[in-house]
Specification:
two-stranded antiparallel ribbon; Uracil-DNA Glycosylase, subunit E; 6 strands
Length: 230
């Protein structure tokens, strides 16, 4: 796959559905972003993250949707600002694990969260895969619904499950992503991811999503799959 293929994929992300959905690569969060250049920063983050993994991936992990503590401000699924900024409390996860071509930049305003946002799911997923012995470029994280679905009553700093109609709008992006990273071993984190992959007739290993007390079952399930990679 070429750089042109990546650029085409990122442009595909521009077509997010209407409503309470934030598109971090093409929209500005006027309340919480550092400025109008925030989407461009997030596009560069995503491009570097994907480029590092082209042709090397052994395992694809599909989550549900972007969260406000993760991809909303980094542009990378299941990856928080604190991971990109190299904060010590991230269980050994380093910025170089995500990409190594340039220094990351935060896009959230410092007054919202001085050290950058931290996402528990991001820390659990990254640390678990690294501890299982996978090299960072051997796995790639994505979401069945690629954008950030938020609660309109609570604002952009909230999460909600994407509606069925919204999930349908994300199917073409999910297919394009899987075409970028052809891989026999695909893990679905939870029911939404498993359902979306089933819609595309893609076989996957469904494991417990680590959120809401599911960390132990997630680690057990993903450990079993990685051992099978052998």
């Amino acid at each position: 796959m070429s750089v042109e293929s990546l650029e085409k994929f990122v442009r595909l992300l521009k077509q997010s559905p209407p409503g309470a959905v934030f598109n971090p690569w093409w929209q500005v969060d006027r309340q919480n972003d550092i400025g109008r250049n925030a989407p461009a920063i997030r596009r560069r983050h995503l491009g570097a993250y994907l480029h590092k993994r082209l042709g090397k991936v052994q395992l694809v992990v599909i989550g549900e949707a972007l969260g406000y503590r993760g991809g909303h401000f980094t542009g990378i699924p299941m990856t928080s600002e604190r991971i990109l900024l190299g904060k010590k409390e991230n269980a050994g996860i380093k910025p170089v694990h995500v990409f190594s071509s340039f220094n990351a930049r935060r896009t959230s305003k410092r007054e919202q969260c001085p050290d950058g946002f931290s996402e528990p799911t991001a820390t659990i997923v990254w640390s678990s895969l690294l501890r299982l012995g996978l090299k960072p470029e051997e796995f790639v994280l994505w979401n069945a619904f690629p954008w950030h679905s938020f609660n309109p009553r609570r604002g952009l700093l909230s999460n909600r499950m994407p509606k069925k109609s919204e999930r349908s709008a994300g199917l073409s992006v999910l297919k394009a992503f899987l075409d970028l990273f052809p891989c026999e071993e695909i893990i679905a984190l939870g029911n939404v991811a498993a359902s979306q992959l089933k819609e595309l007739n893609v076989e996957s290993h469904r494991v417990r999503h680590p959120a809401s007390g599911g960390a132990r079952l997630f680690r057990k399930g993903i450990g079993t799959v990685v051992k099978e990679l052998g």
